[in-house]
Amino acid sequence: MADRGEDEDLEMAIRMSMTPEPKRNKPRDEVAGVVSGLPEDSPESKTRRRELMAAAAEKRMATVVRVSPLSPVGNKELKKGGEVVRRVDELPLRDQSLCKELSAEEANKLFVMVFGSQVSKDILAQWCNQGIRFSSDPETSMGLVQHEGGPCGVLATIQAFVLKYIIFFSNELSRIPQNRGLGVSSKSHSVPSYNISSLTEDVKVRALVRSMGEILFSCGSNKRAVIATLSIPGNDIQRFEGISEDEQVVASSLKALSIESSLDLLKVLRVETHTSETTAFQRLEAIIPLFQSRMGALLFLISALLSRGLDLVQSDRDDPSLPLVTAPFGHASQEIVNLLLCGQAVANVFDGRMDLGGGMFLKGISRNVEVGFLTLLESLNFCKVGQFLKTPKWPIWVVGSESHYTVLFALDPTVQNENELEGRETQIRKAFDAQDQSGGGGFISVEGFHQVIRETNIKLPQVKLDNLCSAGFIVWSEFWQVILDLDQSLGGLKDSSGLMVPPRWTPEEFMADVQGPSASGASDSTGKDIEVSKPEPVQHAPLVDCVRTRWPRAVCNWSGDPPSIV
C-alpha cells in the first residue's frame, strides 16, 4: 500500500509540475488546487504541494529519459503524446538541480549590476537579440555569428573555447556518448584535426555545450554551474529535448518577450544549480535551442554571473558601482571577458594584484588559463597583459581592440614553445612585470628592481647597477639592453661562445638581419651571381601590433585586405 501511495503521489506531482506556469495576475494557490484532500488554503496543503512539485522536478530532470515507442520499456512507464517516458530508478540522484525563481531583491541586484540603474532601450535591444549560433556559411561554419553590437565579449570568449574543442578535441567530440561529463584529457592531442569544413552540426553543438559547461563550472570554482532559463506563461520552453525542431517553437515563444527592467527579468527568469558535470552537460544540450535564440547571449552571461555568485562578482571588481555592460555603446566590459576566461570578474589583465598603498589594491589574473587574451591597447601603452593570459594552455586568444573582441588561434600548439634565450627573456620579463605598479607603464622602483635581479639571479657590475638606478626608477627598455649585453655567466643573454644570438629587440632590427643577404645577392663557387629570393615585405595592420605584444619579433603577411580587429 505504501508503494502504491508513493506512485500515486509521484504521478500527481509530475502532472502538476508539467502544468504551464500560472499567470502572475492569479494567486498561485488558486491555480494549484487541492493536494491530498487538504483544504487548499491550509499551510499543510501549500507545504505538501511544494514538496511534491520539487520532488517531481528533481525526478524528471535527473532520472527521466526518452525512448522510442518500439523500444523495450522496463520500470514504470508514463505516456505523453504518444511518446513513452521511462523512469530510470537505478540512476543516482547526486546533482542538486532544482529550478527556482530569483527573489525580487536578487533580480534587481542582477539587473543593475549588468545594465546599471539607467540603461537605454538600444543597449537592452542589443543584448536581448543575440543568440549563440554558428555561421551557415561553409567557409566560416565553425564561427559564431554576431548580429548586434555589444555582446561580442561574450561571443568571442565562447568562440575561443569552441575552437579549443573543435581543433584539439574533434575526434573525441565525435565519440562522445550523451551522458559524458565535461572533463577531457589533454593527452594525445598535440596533433589537431585540420578538416574543419567537414564538421557535422552534432559535433559543433557538442563543442558549444562543452565550452559553455566548462566556462560555467570555472565561474563556480569547479564546484557548481548555474544555468539560467526562461519560463514564459502559457509555454513550456524549459523542457525542450530536441534541437532543430524546437528552434521555431522557442522563437515563437519569445516574440512578445521584452526585458526593460528587473521586474521583467523577475517574471520570466528561472535558474538551476548543478553540482554534477554530467547532468549539467545533459541539461545544456537539452535546452541548447534556448541559448541559440535571441536571448542566448544574455542568458549565458547571467548564468556565468550566478555561477560565480553576485556577491563574489562584486568583490572581484575594482569599482562595483559601474555596470558590467558599458555605456554608451553597450560593450561587454573587461570584467565580463575575464569572468568567462578565468572565473573571476576582475577588471585588469596583469598578473596578480597591484599595491596602490594605503591598503588599496587593483586585482588582476591569479592563475593559468585554458585560452588567453591579447589587446591592441597594450601596444598603445594603455595596459600590460600578464603572462597568465599571454601564455594559455592552448594557442587560442581572445583579441581586444578599442571597440570589439575577436579571436586569434593557431593550429599548432608548438607556436608557444620557446628556445633557451626566449625562455630566459620570459622569466626576466615576468619578474619585472610583477614589480611594475604603474599599470603596464614599463618601469619599477629601485627596491622592486633589486627584488627582480635577486629572483632571476642576475649579477650586474656595480657601475651598470648604479647607472640604472640613478633616476630613482628603472625602465624596462633600458634594463633589457643591459641584459642583452650581459654575459650568460652573469645571468644575461650574451653568449661569449658566439653559438647563440640574443633575440633582436625590435621587428625592424630582425627584418634588417633577414633582408641583408638577400639585398646584396650572392655568388656560387664559379663566381657567377645567383638569384636569392627576397622575403615577403613586412605588412602592417592593428592586428600586427597586437600580435607583437605576444611575439615581439613576429613578421606578418596576408593576401588581400588587411585583417580587421575593429
UniProtKB/TrEMBL annotation:
<dbReference type="GO" id="GO:0006508">
    <property type="term" value="P:proteolysis"/>
</dbReference>
<protein>
    <recommendedName>
        <fullName>Deubiquitinating enzyme MINDY-3/4 conserved domain-containing protein</fullName>
    </recommendedName>
</protein>
<feature type="compositionally biased region" description="Basic and acidic residues">
    <location>
        <begin position="21"/>
        <end position="31"/>
    </location>
</feature>
<dbReference type="InterPro" id="IPR003903">
    <property type="entry name" value="UIM_dom"/>
</dbReference>
<feature type="region of interest" description="Disordered">
    <location>
        <begin position="1"/>
        <end position="48"/>
    </location>
</feature>
<feature type="domain" description="Deubiquitinating enzyme MINDY-3/4 conserved">
    <location>
        <begin position="111"/>
        <end position="478"/>
    </location>
</feature>
<dbReference type="GO" id="GO:0071108">
    <property type="term" value="P:protein K48-linked deubiquitination"/>
</dbReference>
<comment type="similarity">
    <text>Belongs to the MINDY deubiquitinase family. FAM188 subfamily.</text>
</comment>
<dbReference type="GO" id="GO:0004843">
    <property type="term" value="F:cysteine-type deubiquitinase activity"/>
</dbReference>
<dbReference type="GO" id="GO:1990380">
    <property type="term" value="F:K48-linked deubiquitinase activity"/>
</dbReference>
<dbReference type="InterPro" id="IPR039785">
    <property type="entry name" value="MINY3/4"/>
</dbReference>
<feature type="compositionally biased region" description="Acidic residues">
    <location>
        <begin position="1"/>
        <end position="11"/>
    </location>
</feature>
<dbReference type="InterPro" id="IPR025257">
    <property type="entry name" value="MINDY-3/4_CD"/>
</dbReference>
<dbReference type="Pfam" id="PF13898">
    <property type="entry name" value="MINDY-3_4_CD"/>
</dbReference>
